């Protein structure tokens, strides 16, 4: 059975990316303290307990999936913006985009009696169309100890090059066994799935994932964290959940106001009351010049 590499919480981003690009997954040990884990669960358990089980075998008939975590939990906001995780996510995804964005926030609670989830790739959220780039940087934060018995995530290290229709053999599947407070980091291209819970207790993890700024998010952050909540967040987090241009022309809108009573084209953070200086978010100077040249029929090197 393959074993995932484990790095200390303070591992450099370069070390994280080296293993991630080779194996597709790794573990960062004890990123959160026991008190931080307890505080996060304290904020989230009322929502978790009120969440129904999944309705099919993939989502899990004895698994609960609770979302809208940025709107609901200060501790999750801190986790989303964790400097080491965010630096690694930026480095991993930035070769393919101008801006990264938050893709999904979800508490996954695997309860006793839940069978194994089918092995899959998270990038299949967009189908199997993207072949030459990696669209996702994913994390699962352990809120309880993860063991093979309680449903530790199944992971196939080294599966990045496997064809999409490949069926992993038992001996190719490892398990992300880790202590509470540790983080499984994995790419959108690695084969993985929730484990079977044959224990007497719950396995709780927080799935926070990042993607390219020009892709559709799996969790609609504008509805999960609407402007009246988003305007209370730090600017960096506002931008990460999508209240910023994804590129030169990705994400603008027209406020639905009476004729002549408002601007016509504005960046998304206009919805948060930011009416000054936001035009600079319409892409970089280089990209604006490139688009302008295209409109004028000029060639740019």
From TrEMBL:
Q: Which Pfam families match?
A: PhyH
Q: What is this protein called?
A: Phytanoyl-CoA dioxygenase
Asked if the record carries the keyword Membrane, the reply is no
The domain of life is: Bacteria
Q: Which residues form the signal peptide?
A: none
Q: Could you tell me the keywords of this UniProt record?
A: Dioxygenase, Iron, Metal-binding, Oxidoreductase
Q: Name one GO molecular function term.
A: 2-oxoglutarate-dependent dioxygenase activity
Matches recorded under InterPro entries: Phytyl_CoA_dOase-like
Q: Check the record and name the PANTHER family matching this protein.
A: PHYTANOYL-COA DIOXYGENASE DOMAIN CONTAINING 1, PHYTANOYL-COA DIOXYGENASE DOMAIN-CONTAINING PROTEIN 1
